[in-house]
Each structure stands twice: as C-alpha cells, then as structure tokens.
Amino acid sequence: MPYSIRHSRRAKHLRLVAKPEGIELVVPPTVSESRALAFLQKHRGWAERKLAEMRSVTPESRPKRGLQNGATLPFQGREVPLVVREHAGRRTYIRYDGHFLLSIPAGASENQDHLALKALFAWTRLWLRDEARSIAERHAPRFGLYPRQIRVKRMTSRWGSCGPMNDINLNWLLAFAPPSVLEYVVVHELCHIRHRNHSFDFWALVAHHMPDYSSERQWLRLNGATLLRRFE
Questions:
Q1: How far apart are CA 223 and CA 216, in angstroms?
Q2: For labelling alongside 32, which of 11, 117, 118, 191 has CA 20 to 30 A away?
Q3: What percent of the residues of the chain are helix, what percent strand, and what percent coil, each to the nearest 5?
Q4: Cα–Cα separations (whole angstroms), residue 158 to 167, 170, 189, 224
Q5: Predicted model pTM
Q6: C-alpha–C-alpha distance, residues 137 and 158, integer Å
Q7: What is the C-alpha separation between 109 and 43, in angstroms, rounded?
Q8: What's the sign of the alpha-carbon dihedral 163, 193, 154, 137?
C-alpha cells in the first residue's frame, strides 16, 4: 500500500487521507513516527478499501499523470499541480511557486514530454543539491562526516552512493519523496564516510542521527519502485 507522511503543525490528531496515488498519514507535532506508523497499521484495512474504491473509477475521471497540463507531480511527497503553457521563445523552462509552471516553445507539443523531463531534471538538480547540502551541514559536524561534494544524478536503481573520496551522489527523484526520506538518504551516505559497509556499527551511527530512520527506509521499500517507474 503506497503511503506518504505529512507532518502538520495544525493537526491535533492522527488521520489518514485517501488519495488516488496512495494514503497520506497526517501526523501532529507531538506524535512520534513509531506511534504514527502503528496507527497506519491499525487502520490498514480501511485504507486499502478506500484505495480500491478510488482506483475503481473510470480512467476518464482519474488524475492525469505524466508531464501534461493538469497532471500532478509528487514534489516532496505531496502531489502538486503541473501547469503547462506555450510561449514565443525557444527555451523550455520550469519554475515552482506552490505548483510547477512549465513553459514550452509554441509548436513543440510533440516533444513536450522530452522537453518537460529535461527541464524538470535541470531545475530539480539545483534545488535538491541545495537541500542536501543544508541537511549535510546539520548532521556532518556531530561525528566529522564531511563529504567532499554532493552531486545529483539520474540513477536507475539506487537512491544514493558514497565514493572512495567521500563524494556523495543522490538520485534526483528524491525531490519527489517526503523530506524525511531525503534526509534519511543523505544521512545514510554520510555514515558511509565512516563505515563502508552495512554493519551493526553503521546502522548504529545512522540511528544516532535519525532514531526513527526505519520508517523512511520502509517508505523507500514500499514506494521506491513506483516512483522510479513514474519518471521512466
């Protein structure tokens, strides 16, 4: 069952929201990740029934996917609208302001998906690199885990890697996962600076940085393949 976690300062109680792309678990600031996941498990039957009901609607009534006008993109784990418009210039560009606005050259509709994906990658690459650097700056000083550089790449089967010179590579699709999942992957690769394996000591170091990392790891197990397929 695909799901995402949204932490809400306004929420007073745990709640589940059924959406076509999966279940959204809304978590108040006073509730721990472990308690929230236990709540999700308790109401799993209800959530699966709701998803089945929503996905049984006709194809015409389902949300548009891909990179067409009216589609949505799961930016930071939340579906946001994509607006596509034509303009008189020759460049394709994209910007984000609560929604994605994609501008393509007039008459380029036949190549729209290719142009859109290229523009989306270029924008996301810069945004994600800045986000990852901020996360690394928060975590690196605790145990001296300083990467030489952070790079964002297209990766087909991995979410991140740490090279022999402490260069961290991140999958650009992490921009479309919940923020806590991005943080987990950055922390995971930072910890490989100290431990080049997945030993007990490695996972203990990850837990020092993110005690509840198991929920983020589980999110990737449950939703990672779907996210990879969505942007193939």
A1: 10
A2: 191
A3: 45, 20, 30
A4: 15, 8, 12, 10
A5: 0.72
A6: 23
A7: 44
A8: negative
